[in-house]
User: Fold these one by one.
Assistant:
Number 1:
Amino acid sequence: MSDACCTKGTPIRGDYCGKGVVKQVGDFRVYEVGSGSKTVLVAYDIFGIDVNTTRHFCDRVAEGSDCRVLMPDYFRGNPFPTENFPPADRQVLYDFVNKVGNWQIVQEVTEATLKHYNVQNFSIIGFCWGGKQVVRYAADPRCRAGICVHGSLLEASDAENIRVPVFFANAGDDGPIDPLKNILDKKPFGSQCLYKVYSTMSHGWCAGRGDWNKPDIREAAFEVIDLTKQFIAKHH
């Protein structure tokens, strides 16, 4: 639905210093923060594991909650290069995620992470490219809840296999979520899903393209974080 990931915004590194730790798990890293009993996986956007805003989001989800947040480096140290963003041809980005972040790779990294941390069940948060992984994992029997934040490349068919409540937080320039909502509304848990559109926000404001030094962007992002924590507390 939304392809704003391909054409809009500029990645922002920021000066925030993450409170978590980075651990090596096999041939990839994991950003870990919190020590709660509920495991929350995070699938970042195309700019990878080292973006401070994304780590800040993870930190705030873990803060004051019963959550241990794990953000695996699905791209294994090869995020989309910021100097080439946005690409002149969006196919370049599609080719990139199909190479370093395809579904097989995502599954391999996720399974290795779950095994390393001895995780039996989890909730999952995803941004942009990561939002696609959320709707995929929302069909997994081990998944308890999904949070899809300005998700990209979503299709109505993604909703068919979803089996747990999902919170969709969209920017004003993201594509409509109605095609998925129409399907989810018919499921037994449909009324437990949450949909919120931040019409004044641009795609990416909660992760790699979010300038949280701006009060309006920070306020909207923090609201998404609060709703995320409430959603996980309720459904996980």
Number 2:
Amino acid sequence: MRPESARTALVTGATSGIGLATAQELARLGFRLLVTGRRRERLAALVAELPAGAAHALAFDVRDHAAVDAAIGSLPPEWRRVDVLVNNAGNAHGRAPIDRDDVADWDAMLDSNVKGLLYVTRAVLPLMPNDAGALIINLGSVAGYQAYPEGAVYCASKAAVAMLTHGMRLDLVGRGIRVAEVAPGAVETEFASVRFKGDEARAAGVYAGWEPLQAQDVAELIGFMATRPARVNVAQVLLLATAQASATLTRKDAPR
């Protein structure tokens, strides 16, 4: 049965990067975990590193509405309360001017970053208690506030996350459910490798010459937000590395 003192957090995209670091940080803080992702073997490894009964894995792609509903609907009774939802799953795909960009990349970003967030939130909300400090944290980006060349659709998808967060907060305040956004700058994860489709040299060049955020930095902020008293909502945070001043300006390119 569910320990009465334990709160449960559901983290999407928990197989790598910010999602994995967040799951590990929330476990350290005493949360039970529902971890989701597409890579079953990585989910199994994460569950195995935690105490028995402390985590439960659900393998699905957030872009698949039916799969999201089926997975959340399959939860056993002892896992059917979610106190914290971290909508982390999402990615960038490709980088090119809008007139030469790949439509398949547009679909991948909008389907995961926007529609996937909506699918998961809609499925999980019936499991979130009213007036008990429940919290939804959406992972946005500095790119949702500052567009840059060759990133129009990714930036638009993260701008949608920012606006969805505002709208969800309005819709859910009557239930006493907090809704917040964390908007990081550059974080050194698999993000650049995925964006550049396995071109590791190009991916490494994104972070060359300056020190970006690490996944743990974002995870610790999420942990702080998730452990505030129920009366407190840290509603919006822009998190940048010291060496990053905007979406496009870092220390390596700054005037000296």
